[in-house]
Amino acid sequence: MARLNVNPTRMELTNIKGKLKTAKKGHKLLKDKRDELMRQFIELVRENKDLRRQVEAGIAEANAHMAVARSVMSDEALNVALMLPMQEMSLEVTEKNVMSVMIPVFETKFKTADANDIYSYGYAFTSSDLDDAVKALSDIMPLMLRLAEVEKSCQLMAAEIEKTRRRVNALEHVMIPQYEETIKYIRMKLDENDRSTTTRLMKVKDMMLEEAHHYSEREVG
Amino acid sequence: MYKIAAMGDKDSIYGFASIGLEIYPVEEPTDAIRQLRDMVEGGYAVIFVTEQLATAIESEIDRYRELPMPAIIPIPGINGNTGLGMRNVSKSVEQAVGSDILSDA
Question: Which domains can be identified in chain B, with CATH numbers?
């Protein structure tokens, strides 16, 4: 593992120790964030799949009714019946903060007072299958909006989890080992310097004593 | 105040008009992309797109995946279910976890 390119001084050592501490703390926090996001994500995905199954079944049913209606009514009559809708649906969107992911929360608003006011035609010239189709769609609509909410949340959370996972891995496998390696390197260098200073001092002391007392000459004599 | 739209072939989405969605019947992928861009600008919170059309313009739809708005949701059209919707969910799982751990298959 590559170490950082720094001068092996005590000051750098203190700096990098601080950085390592921060990195470790960050790593722990991000890991917790990832785990919690993952837990919520899995829950949401389960709901998403259930909702999708229900919605797809509901739409299939509505389409079946619609197909019958289309076969018994003329195209013009059908167009006329559905051309001018009574109801208008709109959404109030607020955001909910889940582990710093902003997920949308929808609130449905209807134009007319009665949400069941869905038949935009008189019943005289239309097939009852059209009524069934419209009713089926209307029944499934709240689920569809919930599906939209959940599916969007899933997508946003998936993106956030991916990002967090990358950060956790980068800290765990790159940054932290790098700092540790560097700290080790600086320690070794400093120890090495210490030792070399000690030996040098010993040597100097020997030389000074030699100068003062002339041991080597005495040995000869 | 945001609006809800449905886009796809006419037969699949006509019913939605009666319950208060705005419908945009388009058949051609190029028209669909243009329409989609207009809608993204135009304050729609949810856009339902038939799976058939969504398959054709998947790359365009993916661009809005990570934006908070709008939610583009594939729904089965009159020609039945192509499984794109479920695949999309699996895609999210794959992105988050690394592999699709929740598939029933």
Answer: 3-97 (3.40.50.10580)
| pLDDT digits 0-9 by tens, A84-132 | 776 777 888 888 888 888 888 888 877 766 666 667 677 767 778 878 8
Provide the 8-state DSSP code for B65: T
What is the ipTM for the molecules in this complex? 0.87
Distance from CA of B29 to the nearest CA of A (A): 22
Residue A66 has pLDDT above 90, yes or no: no
Which tops the pLDDT comparison, B47 or B84? Answer: B47
CB contact under 8 A, B4 and A38: no
Convert the pLDDT of each residue in B40-70 to its tens digit.
Answer: 888 888 899 888 888 888 888 888 888 887 8
Those of residues 113-172 in A touching chain B at CB distance below 8 A are 118-120, 133-134, 137-138, 141, 144-145, 147-149, 151-152, 154-159, 161-162, 165
So what's the pLDDT on residue A200?
Answer: 96
For B10, the token pair is 């006419």
Cα B52 from chain centre: 10
pTM of the entire structure?
Answer: 0.82
DSSP three-state, residue B101: coil
Q: Give the nearest chain B residue to A64 (CA atoms).
A: B78
Could you give the domains of chain A?
A: 34-158 (1.10.287.3240)
CA distances (Å), origin A71, targets A29, A74, A78, A172, B32: 61, 7, 10, 64, 27
Phi and psi torsions of A181, nearest 5°: -60, -45
